[in-house]
């Protein structure tokens, strides 16, 4: 989701004459924190922009392009950079910039547990459960009985399939 802070950076980029493309790297199923999916979606969106940009937006047929992401976007960009040589070797990406990177989901969850940002773990767990059915099965088993109903009800409300 684009935040007001992001708009300042996007506006500055547009005033430089840059084209901007943003990807729904979490998929319609809201699979946040699923690195491989995020990386593939980011690279696929670059492919689409390069395929259709020259004819529909007067984009150069051989533009210089880079990836940029912060926080959840950094996760997508870092996975895209790691996967690019094998998944999209035809893409000549000039560079990648990331900030606020989530380097290790386990470490993040342990750090935020019981604190003011602990609700972020919910989003991570839901994203992983939607992408990996064995994790969803484990999660259902691991949650305390009184939390299961609340957890899965919120999941259905916030992230419909």
TrEMBL record:
InterPro entries: AB_hydrolase_fold (IPR029058), Lipase_secreted (IPR005152). SUPFAM superfamilies: alpha/beta-Hydrolases. One of its GO terms (biological process) is lipid catabolic process. One of its GO terms (molecular function) is triacylglycerol lipase activity. It holds the Pfam family LIP. It comes from the Eukaryota. This is LIP-domain-containing protein. It comes from Aspergillus heteromorphus CBS 117.55.
């Amino acid at each position: 989701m684009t935040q007001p802070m992001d708009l300042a950076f996007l506006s500055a980029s547009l005033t430089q004459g840059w084209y901007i493309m943003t990807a729904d790297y979490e998929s319609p199923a809201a699979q946040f924190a699923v690195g491989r999916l995020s990386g593939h979606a980011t690279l696929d969106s670059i492919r689409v922009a390069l395929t259709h940009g020259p004819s529909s937006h007067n984009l150069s047929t051989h533009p210089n392009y880079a990836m940029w992401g912060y926080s959840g976007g950094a996760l997508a960009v870092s996975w895209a950079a790691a996967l690019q040589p094998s998944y999209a070797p035809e893409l000549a990406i000039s560079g990648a910039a990331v900030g606020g990177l989530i380097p290790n989901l386990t470490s993040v969850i342990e750090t935020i547990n019981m604190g003011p940002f602990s609700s972020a773990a919910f989003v991570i767990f839901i994203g992983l459960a939607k992408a990996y059915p064995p994790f969803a099965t484990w999660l259902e088993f691991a949650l305390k009985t009184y939390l299961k109903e609340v957890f899965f009800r919120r999941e259905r409300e916030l992230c419909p399939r």
